[in-house]
Write a structure and sequence with these properties.
The protein has about 300 residues and is mainly α. It contains 14 helices and three strands. Strands 1-2-3 form a three-stranded antiparallel sheet, with no helix packed on it.
Length: about 300
């Protein structure tokens, strides 16, 4: 009886052979194919760059053969040419892929445990209010009209660069002075207030439909299309490292400094967690100095 059962099990195993585990390179490609229609372009590009450029010795390793030691070795190779924050991003991607493999039943559990590097945080640049007009004038001196519009959408409404690139006129309501983005990272459709200065800027070029920001051939811009202009404006005005995403941080910080509560900023920024919103806000030392002066006056110093 036992011999017959063994022979039967062997026959089944031979008829349905166990498939070898995917390599890490194959897993990354499978993740990209699976998420092509649902993940953001920046997310897809990040995983694709990881797959093409940063697998090191792990590319042909079966995912069930990954070890803490092998992943740490690859991470340390990445650290030789990249910043600690980039290395942590690398670690998040490999963990993302392996967690997806667990979810799909390709492996039983993530086969390694690698800690994130500790990073010394530093203040991030925000666009000073006193230099905002001068900075926009520098933008206008070097940028085409679509790029000028995109940068104002990012500064005035906190849109991501990708959201500015996909912004459409039919989503803009100049009567109510609201804009409801129809394509966002988190798939939300919440209206965003349009400040009066931005509404006045957009009104003369208002169209019924179509992209608000487009190339001469009517196609959408690629990722990073505002970066060179912003860098030039920074150099012209002597401002620090303002980037497309720091314009979004500037938007959130200015709302906070002018009395908007975190819950309101969270809604306007379309964040799912207030903790994410708080990560965008920079400390306003001017307000802290005023508070210190009031405390000193109250104490009679």
């Amino acid at each position: 009886m036992a011999q017959a059962a063994y022979q039967s099990a062997s026959a089944v195993a031979n008829h349905f052979p166990v498939r070898p585990a995917l390599t890490l390179a194959q897993l990354a490609k499978a993740w990209i194919d699976s998420h092509a229609a649902i993940a953001s372009a920046s997310h897809l590009n990040g995983v694709d760059a990881f797959r093409r450029l940063h697998l090191y010795d792990l590319g042909e390793t079966a995912i069930d053969r990954l070890t803490t030691a092998s992943v740490e070795d690859a991470r340390n190779k990445h650290l030789r040419t990249h910043s600690p924050s980039s290395v942590n991003h690398w670690s998040r991607i490999i963990r993302l892929l392996c967690n997806w493999a667990v979810h799909r039943g390709l492996i039983g559990q993530v086969p390694f445990k690698v800690k994130m590097l500790k990073i010394q945080r530093r203040p991030r640049a925000t666009l000073p209010v006193a230099l905002a007009r001068q900075w926009l004038e520098a933008v206008d001196a070097v940028a085409s009209n679509p790029v000028r519009v995109a940068i104002r959408l990012m500064l005035g409404m906190g849109l991501r660069e990708s959201e500015a690139a996909s912004a459409r006129w039919e989503w803009l309501d100049l009567v109510r002075q609201t804009y409801t983005p129809g394509r966002t990272k988190g798939r939300e459709a919440d209206p965003v207030p349009v400040p009066a200065w931005l509404a006045d800027y957009l009104r003369p070029m208002r169209q019924s439909t179509g992209l608000m920001v487009a190339r001469p051939d009517s196609r959408a811009f690629a990722r990073g299309f505002t970066r060179a202009t912003i860098k030039t404006a920074n150099a012209h005005t002597g401002i620090g490292e303002i980037t497309p995403h720091r314009l979004r941080g500037t938007f959130a910080t200015l709302l906070s400094e002018n009395g908007a509560p975190v819950q309101v900023i969270q809604r306007v920024m379309r964040h799912k967690s207030p903790l994410t919103t708080m990560g965008y806000l920079e400390v306003d030392l001017v307000h802290a100095a005023r508070a210190q002066a009031l405390i000193a006056e109250q104490c009679g110093f």
